[in-house]
Amino acid sequence: MSGAADQTSPASHTGEGPGGHFWQNVVAAGVCIAWNATFLTMSLGLPEGHSRGDIGPGALPSQVAMFGLAVSLIYLVQALRGVDFGGSDGPVDVPRVAALVAIFVAVAVSAPWIGLPIALGLGACVGTLLFPGDRPWIRAVATGAGIWAIAFFLFGKVLGLPLP
Asked: In the chain, what is the greatest distance between 2 CA atoms, to the nearest angstrom?
């Protein structure tokens, strides 16, 4: 076999050795599975529809969680097969991760008081500032405004979902 063929064969994607990210991908898949399983469990606790054909408020979250579980399981299988999806070769940026967790918690805590669309927009805006790139303020405002618009117009107005 030539060197070029070896680079594209599944054996070359074992995730071991230099640049290997096997354990990072397995842990990420496990976290995604746990997240979606928890989300599914919580969504199944929502009330069912009140009449025949009424899907109830838990239908969309349940469907999102099932899709997330399916994708996460595929990710885990691929990682266990040795496909290297990449990852960090350096140390994890703990302050950035901690800041993102804090933003997530702040959005969840503030949503009942300021409204979910505004909380999501502000959280996305601030979270975007944690990542390098050109024109950070323009990206942050555009991301925040886009997330707000999706939450407000799509979920609040078009789908008519009651948002906090």
From this structure: 65
User: According to the 3-state scheme, what is the secondary structure of the chain?
Assistant: CCHHHHHHCHHHHCCCCCCCCHHHHHHHHHHHHHHHHHHHHHHHCCCCCCCCCCCCCCHHHHHHHHHHHHHHHHHHHHHHHCCCCCCCCCCCCHHHHHHHHHHHHHHHHHHHHHCHHHHHHHHHHHHHCCCCCCCHHHHHHHHHHHHHHHHHHHHHHHCCCCCC
Give per-residue pLDDT as tens, 42-71.
Answer: 988 887 767 666 677 777 788 899 999 999
CB-CB neighbours of 57 under 10 Å: 15
Residue whose pair of structure tokens reads 């640049």 in the numeric block: 19
Closest Cα partner for 40 from 76, 70, 79? Answer: 70
The Cα–Cα gap between 100 and 96 comes to 6
**CA 131-67-72 angle, 5° bins:** 60
pTM of the model as a whole:
0.59
Q: What is the pLDDT of residue 53?
A: 66
